[in-house]
Amino acid sequence: MPAGNFPKGAGIAATFRLNHVETLWNGRFRTEMQAENALSCGVVIVAAGRGERAGSHAEGPKQYRRIGGRPVIAHTLDVFIGWPEARHIVVVIHPDDEALFAAARAEALPDDGRLTIVNGGATRQQSVLAGLEALSGKEIGHVLIQDAVRPFVEPAILERTLTAFQHGARAVLPAVAVADTLKRADANGNVAETVSRSGLFAAQTPQSFHFQTILEAHRRAAASGRTDFTDDASIAEWAGVRVHLVEGGAGNVKLTLQKDITMADQRLSHGLPDVRTGNGYDVHQLVPGNGVTLCGLFIPHDQALSGHSDADVALHALTDALLATCGAGDIGDHFPPSDPQWKGAASRIFLEHAAGLVRARGGTIMNADVSLIAEAPKVGPHREAMRRNLAEFLGISLDRCSVKATTNEKIGFVGRREGIAAIATATVVYRGADA
To answer: Which domain holds residue 154?
Structure first.
């Protein structure tokens, strides 16, 4: 493959998922077509190294040093916890680092029970095998193997990996074409020759594979006594597996030396943050009934909200607010009311779908605020339960969720108890993309 000539189609995976009602990130809902096409991805994050080249530090090995105010590994965890396709995530740590990892984990996104922690071995190769064995039996079709000290993986790399899998690749390696002139030195430190950089690429992670293929390759390598492999793609090559290149990212750097960590901290600590605010509005008609669902909570009442789904105006408005932060259209684009499969559906499905889209595009949900406009029922007695629901659905802390209510002073359709309206605002911080 010529330098810089990568397979096209980075956006195919996103189009594929949207056209087939994207696999919801919590795995609670799938259409039949999604079940047929699901890639069942697992992730192994390798974090058992000692990081000697970065020098000793009071914060511990380099994966636990702080950049942008949080441990390196917390940033890496965010990428994959927020990725909708990650069914299971195994983190391989050193036995001495359990307390360090527990503290770092507390600063990452909630993992929704998908995280497994195992101890690694004396080498990276042994640690990866331990992580792969932990995924065995979990019905994983493909696995992404990621260095904990590459915290800047952009969603586009994950999308390109998915696209390659969908086109039949069994091993996928993100890489960047070598741009610098390369020299080979002799034993005395003099230039022996200039090496052509044509066709040369620098490998990155996540390196991704058909799960059973790489598991068997690692097992064979361990049984043969081979311990000299420098990455997982080289093990796949040794096992006779063709490794497909996809475009990596210039910013997807591995933090090896102390200067790398310092530069990463500066990258996260300076510059204008990408903070986006989205607004959403929804209204549903009130009809005779026995209760309404607001913020995922059923409240007994002498009326009901009319709608194709459960007509939860609060979650509908908040779904639109989240979609607005990444330009992903509105709730009707993703869940058309003309589609019978959404008849009576719980609106948390829509909200969790929007949250998964936000995270897949590099967003961290910072705040969710819902204002309900209704004459009845009274929201006050149910406010805390509603806030707890929002926190659960969005995977954020309770203090980031707000629910308020007001009447319309008996003016208009709300005042006449003909309907309930909701206004929602969501604040999301997005990771900056490479220029």
So the answer is: 12-269
Residue 363, domain CATH? 3.30.1330.50
Q: Using CB atoms within 10 Å of the CB of residue 300, give its burial: 0 to 12 exposed, 13 to 18 middle, 19+ buried.
A: exposed
pLDDT of residue 39: 67
Residue 53, H or E segment = none
**Contact by Cβ (8 Å): 41, 86:** yes
Per-residue pLDDT reduced to its tens digit, 80-89: 998 889 999 9
Domain boundary among 249, 269, 289: 269
Between CA 430 and CA 435, with CA 434 as vertex, the angle to 5 degrees is 120
Q: CA nearest 423: which of 435, 411, 400, 406?
A: 406
Q: What are phi and psi of 247, to 5 degrees?
A: -65, 130
Dist. CA 388–CA 375, nearest whole Å: 23
How many angstroms separate the CA atoms of 91 and 178, rounded?
A: 30
CA atoms of 373 and 392, how far apart (whole Å): 23
Please check whether residue 367 lies inside any domain of the structure.
yes
Consecutive H or E run containing 422: strand 419-430
pLDDT digits (tens, 9 = 90+) for 330-361: 999 999 988 888 999 999 999 999 999 998 88
Backbone angles phi, psi at 175, to 5 degrees: -155, 160
Task: Please calculate the CA angle 28-33-36 and round it to the nearest 5 degrees.
Answer: 90
Residue 270 has a pLDDT of 67
What average pLDDT is seen over the chain?
Answer: 88
Mean pLDDT along residues 175-198: 95
Pick the range with the lowest mean pLDDT from 48-52, 180-184, 362-366: 48-52
List, as one string, the DSSP characters of 223-268.
HHT----SSHHHHHHHTTPPPEEEE--TT-----SHHHHHHHHHHH
| Domain annotation covers residue 6 | no
Torsion sign, CA atoms 46, 214, 248, 352: negative
Number of separate domains in the chain: 2
Q: What's the rounded mean pLDDT across residues 117-132?
A: 96
